[in-house]
Design goal:
- The complex is a heterodimer of chains A (271) and B (315).
- By secondary structure, chain A is mainly alpha-helical.
- Chain A is built from ten helices and no strands.
- In chain B, α7 packs across α8, α8 crosses α10 and α10 runs parallel beside α11.
- Chain B starts with a helix and ends with a helix.
- The chains are: A mainly alpha (271), B mainly alpha (315).
């Protein structure tokens, strides 16, 4: 196990664990206001201190992890569920009008940065976690379509695919039975990276008020709340920021580690 | 080359046309009538009708779409529902903040990333390389708006070198303007610089493994001479693409950074427009951003083809 994979797994599981535990236990009720205890720096009772309403920051961070992970995970799911079939189809029908339409469609979506998609969706349907998921998810579709198509194209040239064709399997069946298992590794690695990008995007969107709405805690909105208080309560800004960095760093290291682990050839080349 | 450019130009125009239809269609779905929003709930039916006519809200969807696109082609983006001023004027004012900010950040990101990437590649596997790679790994994980808040905390609140926010305007001189954009530009540039440095490093490492690099060394060039004359120049090709892609991220990213620093750029314009349901402003700014992204990518493709003739035959 490489250092990247170890550290990545450790950091990622820390965050996932915090999110899972928050379903059954948090040190305090994350939404309980307690004005007398407001703006405490980290201490023995409140490990991460309290915010301007006296809410326990540690509990909010735990529940916020839930929001971040849920949004990013579903967004990756959307990207994979739509992008992978599109990529497989485009590769199976390489050079056809269908391939052309799919790839040009991808280019088009790429021209809308996810933030711009989010702004459009919010302008029309209002802010919220669901709309943030859709905005990030839409942007994930071309990523997965492209990577699937690229990998599938080279697989189609291989002998074992030719063998499958000779044995009478159709393009759809070959795509599912032979191409998909062979691009799965690549998709897992890319999924990890998109997951980390999704965490960042969710934080950005909820920071500007386009993500999860109160009272659902989210790291991005905690940062937005902290902004006016950063001069006298810097822990309010530091802690959610570090939570985001730990999560994203963990996922990126996990992605790098998985890539090397799943493909030993790269391990040699990258050393 | 001309044929290739023409082909790309046609696909650029198609992309722009499709993008404009998509944006128009999404905005069309939005509930609510701008005219009744502007005049409030007590408005008379005939005033509403008059205002709708004035805003060009009557007529078929196709008619209004063509009006919108036709207007944009001659620089007329319509009239803001809330401010009653031409949208083109509002955008132009804000662009004087957002565009210099994006360019400033792009310059910084390039200035940081190139030396870092080249240094890391030249010292592959050594402590210097590992330090740069570790720093970039961290740089990618840091949300730029959080980094911006930390910069404000350190350099504006504690050290008082910069203002915590706001823009002095270009009227006070270029230096004053740049000074007030410095913290936002650093915040925007950091994650992009981290990505760019990694691209620079891996592009250079690919080149360093090529046969012609060995030839360069064999003909008597020192390691350093070979690196700069043959390595860096060839590595620039993939790096150029990433810089082009980053420009769009910087423009979009500036929307969030402007919120941190209270800069009167496109980002603030869009958020004010969203809360005021001033959809024509949202529509036009989004179209402008998409136009910028598509056009920059087109230019990068052309530059790419100009540098590398092999790419012209492929599309």
């Amino acid at each position: 196990m490489s250092r990247n994979l170890f550290l990545g797994t450790f950091l990622s599981s820390l965050v996932v664990l915090a999110a899972l535990i928050s379903f059954v236990w948090t040190p305090y009720d994350y939404s309980a206001l307690s004005i007398p205890e407001k703006l405490q720096p980290p201490n023995v009772e409140h490990w991460f201190g309290t915010d301007h309403f006296g809410r326990d920051m540690f509990s909010m961070i735990m529940v916020g992890a839930r929001t971040s992970i849920a949004v990013a995970l579903v967004a990756v799911g959307i990207g994979m569920a739509l992008g992978v079939p599109l990529g497989l189809t485009a590769a199976a029908r390489k050079g056809s009008w269908l391939d052309e339409v799919i790839m040009r469609g991808n280019d088009l979506v790429f021209a809308f940065p996810s933030l711009v998609i989010a702004i459009l969706i919010t302008a029309v349907f209002g802010a919220g976690a669901i709309n943030a998921i859709i905005a990030i998810g839409i942007f994930n579709i071309p990523v997965f379509a492209r990577i699937t198509r690229g990998a599938a194209l080279s697989l189609w040239e291989r002998e074992f695919i030719l063998a499958a064709r000779v044995s009478g399997k159709g393009a759809a069946r070959i795509s599912v039975e032979h191409i998909l298992p062979n691009v799965a590794n690549l998709l897992i690695v890319q999924g990890t990276i998109q997951f980390s990008l999704g965490i960042l995007a969710e934080a950005g969107l909820s920071y500007v008020g386009l993500g999860a709405q109160p009272p659902t805690p989210s790291w991005g909105r905690m940062l937005a709340d902290a902004q006016t208080m950063v001069s006298f309560a810097p822990h309010l800004a530091l802690i959610p920021g570090v939570a985001i960095i730990v999560t994203v760093l963990g996922l990126n290291l996990l992605g790098d580690g998985l890539r090397d682990w799943l493909d030993p050839r790269i391990r040699v080349a990258r050393a | 080359m001309l044929r290739y450019a023409l082909k790309r130009l046609i696909s650029l125009l198609i992309s722009l046309a499709v993008a404009s239809v998509v944006i128009f269609a999404v905005i069309e779905v939005a509930p609510g009538d701008p005219a009744s929003f502007m005049l409030g709930v007590n408005a008379q039916e005939d005033t509403l009708a008059a205002l709708r006519a004035e805003l060009g809200l009557n007529g078929s969807k196709v008619h209004r779409y063509l009006n919108w696109v036709g207007g944009m082609l001659v620089g007329d983006f319509g009239t803001s529902y809330t401010y009653r001023t031409p949208v083109s004027q509002m955008i132009a004012d804000r662009l004087w903040v957002s565009l210099p900010l994006a360019l400033y950040a792009l310059t910084l990101s390039t200035l940081i990333a190139f030396p870092a990437g080249i240094y890391a590649a030249a010292r592959r596997g050594k402590p210097g390389d590992l330090a740069v790679m570790g720093a970039t790994q961290l740089g990618i994980a840091v949300p730029n708006f959080w980094f911006a808040m930390m910069l404000v905390l350190i350099f504006a609140i504690n050290l008082r070198w910069f203002n915590a926010g706001g823009f002095v305007g270009w009227g006070n001189g270029v230096w004053a303007g740049l000074h007030s954009l410095t913290l936002p530009a650093i915040a925007l540039a950091l994650p992009q610089a981290a990505i760019l440095a990694r691209v620079m490093r891996s592009a250079l490492l690919d080149i360093l493994g090529e046969d012609f690099m060995r030839t360069a060394r064999a003909k008597g060039l020192s390691r350093r001479q070979a690196l700069w004359r043959h390595g860096v120049r060839n590595a620039l090709i993939p790096v150029l693409t990433i810089i082009g892609l980053q420009f769009s991220f910087l423009l979009a990213g500036s929307i969030i950074i402007e919120q941190v620093f209270y800069l009167p750029g496109l980002g603030r314009l869009v958020f004010q427009a969203i809360s005021a349901r001033d959809l024509i402003v949202v529509e036009s700014v989004v179209m402008l951003l998409v136009f910028a992204v598509i056009t920059v990518n087109f230019l990068v493709d052309l530059a790419y083809a100009a540098v590398d003739p092999r790419l012209r035959s492929r599309t």
